[in-house]
Amino acid sequence: MYALPYAAADALGGLALAGLVHALSKQRRAPEYPGPAAAAAFYLWNPLAVAACCGGSSGGLEAAAALCALCATACKRPALAALALACAAHLTIHALLLLVPLAMLLIHGAEDLSFDPRPEACALRSRKAISLRRHACAGLAAGAACPAGQVGDPNSKLDPSQDFWGGAAPRHWVAETYGFALRAEDLEPNSGLHWYLAAQLQGARAPGLRGLRAPTRALLHLLAAGLAAPMALRLPRQPLLGFLVQAVATCLWHPYPSVSHVALYLALLPLFAVRLRRLQAPQAMALSFLVMAAVFPATWHLWAERRSGNANHLFAVTLLFGFWQVLLLVQLVTTARDVERLERVRSHHRA
To answer: Counting runs of H as helices and runs of E as strands, what totals does the chain give?
Structure first.
């Protein structure tokens, strides 16, 4: 019975996603696939959403509120959207970052998700830019794998229950809800980067590095909010993409991300099925995500519960998952830029 509220929230999120697709279909801006029922089923039967529901994660409530706000905004109901966003912000302060793409959606309306970028879009990118991006991705992958195997003593086991900050737990509701997330006091391992960087700075031998914990934490929070305004200024007429990008960025830089945050942006990806065809190596990205989804729980169980694993293995999976999300963000923004250029060319030819 404890999972009943979370199951109801997931059902509400599925209905909101179906309503979003239905509203886009009325405006002739939805892709041919998925339909409303398929979009809702993809979210409800997502193993990550099911796991969050069975585990009693409040992230499912946040995701449902965010989807309701998105659906209400697409249907031009700002009061209902504000109520849903307020419910999401009641759970976490990071939900307020969705205010910018929702405002752009209310002002400009949804973009045409059925528009298929022509093959000429690839010609807009020079070979030099593609080569530089590939070398950068390879360098990031190597950099993500090397520190995880070399930082610290390979035989050491970091106690996840250790309090690195030495602060007392706040008592006020606002401090417990918002201040707790902003201070990132609990360093129990998760799929985010806050705990990893804080643990590395705490275990650093140089005393000066230990004083960088607060600036590093502030920088990560700024990175979570740093994409909302640039996306609104650069691509104001693609608010649904801005919502998706902000959802991925929030999951990437959130101090306590859960599988519900991942399930949220995975539920929105099928809406961009036409544009996802232009992504580079989509099969490799899907396969790598499945591998990380299987390896992360195993490494966490061996280290945090069985006390028999190596912490560096969990560090490696955490960094690689962060790199995977960064790569997804880069490809989504690049595809959106190509679509915008093609639309300008089409409008110029029509004129």
So the answer is: 18, 0
